[in-house]
Amino acid sequence: MSVTALIGTIKGSWLLRADDARQVWRLEGPAFKGWKVTAATREEDGSYLLATASDVYGPALQRTRDFKEFEQLESSPAWPEESGRKLKQIWRLRAHGGSIFAGVDEAGLFRSADGGATWESICGLNEHETREAWQPGFGGLCLHEILVDPTNQDRMWIGISAVGVFRTDDGGVTWNSKNDGVPVILEDQDHQGIGYCVHGLVQDPDDPNKIYRQDHVGMFVTDDGGDSWVRQEDGLPSTFGFPIVMDPHTRHLFCLPLESDEFRIPVDGRFDIYRSTDAARTWAPSSTGLPRSDTYAGVLRQAMAVDGCNPCGIYVGTTAGTIYVSNDVGESWATIPCHLPRILCVEALMED
Question: Are 230 and 220 in contact (CB under 8 A)?
């Protein structure tokens, strides 16, 4: 078994490869030189799907089995011209239940049931009764999170900035806002249940109703599938941050607090990854080997990932193009000797 971390940047993608011991790493690339690489997923047949974007040619999907030869799909998610919407970027890809789901900017959810040959708009969400009041966050009006219930294919959660979390219980026909307990940041008197800025979501693999939420205004957890949220921030130096990930074996959680909305840099210049070992009730730094001072690069919402090894590996890419890795559930960290372009996404992929 080997581990490959796909690093998507504003100027192409790189691969970080190692065996499952993850002691010695090699960097390969770039692919798609000059293009943004914004998302990736492993498909159920073992192939890989990458999302690319160009300021000139727009977004596209690329398929590969070996990261050496790529095939651009003829079809990709698209808004009809009469909608007046523009599809700027694919933010999230998720393969599940024989389908591929894509979350995009301008915010929407699309599904392909034929391996990407055709795509359908999930109209229950994309034409939601609150749609006219959806507002973008600083990073755009983007659907960047897709969670699925492994026990019920009809149940799914999505996160949109700056709209909030929605859940479907009927396979995408209807969607309900699931933000109770989280402070609203863009209040709309005519449309309740929106105006929330979710930054990151992660789901307990054994309990799909237990979801952790890094929000614009804090860290929250739900035990009832999003029907209610409770703030859980004890030990965090700041309530603001973007990614949140979970070790699938220990259920330990990891995040990177940033100073504030106005100053999106590590608190006091210390690049501190925080870990919770008790379901987000308390947090503490887990940063041995990380920079202790004068570090002001942040981490974007999709630029932290975990692998499936035991002990778990964690991968963090920064806006300055630095990569940090841990092969022991955050007990210690190493810096990969490279200086990449601004890192947009990191995906950890297990290979036979």
Answer: yes
Question: What's the whole-model pTM score?
Answer: 0.97
* Partners of 165 in beta bridges: 159
Element (H, E) at 218: strand 218-222
User: How confident is the model at residue 350, as a pLDDT?
Assistant: 76
Locate 139 and state its tokens.
């990073």
Identify which of 107, 114, 104 has the alpha carbon closest to the alpha carbon of residue 44: 114
Q: How confident is the model at residue 188 (pLDDT cuts 50, 70, 90)?
A: confident
Residue 307 has phi, psi (to 5 degrees) of: -100, -175
C-alpha distances in Å from residue 179, one per residue of 41, 62, 146: 27, 34, 16
* CATH class of this structure's domain 2-124+140-157+202-351: mainly beta
Helices (H) and strands (E) in the chain, counts: 1, 28
N-term to C-term CA, the chain:
5
Q: pLDDT tens digits, residue range 277-332? A: 999 999 999 999 999 999 999 999 999 999 999 999 999 999 999 999 999 999 99
* Tokens read off for 104: 């995009």
Which backbone phi and psi does 224 adopt, to 5 degrees? Answer: -125, 35
Nearest by Cα to 151 from 110, 112, 209: 209
Non-local CB neighbours of 228 within 8 Å, separated by 6+ positions: 180, 181, 222
Euclidean distance between CA atoms 83 and 68, whole angstroms: 37
pLDDT higher than 90, residue 141: yes
User: Which pLDDT score is estimated for 216?
Assistant: 97
Domains in the chain: boundaries: 2-124+140-157+202-351
| Cβ–Cβ under 8 Å, residues 157 and 178 | yes
pLDDT at 352 over 70: no
- Report residue 345: phi and psi, to 5°: -150, 155
Distance CA 56, CA 19 (A): 38
Answer whether 29's CB lies under 8 Å from 22's CB. no
Q: How far apart are CA 52 and CA 120, in angstroms?
A: 19
User: In b/e form, how buried is each residue of 17-41, taking b as 16+ CB within 10 angstroms?
Assistant: bbeeebeebebebbbbeebbbbbbb
Q: What is the mean pLDDT of residues 247-267?
A: 97
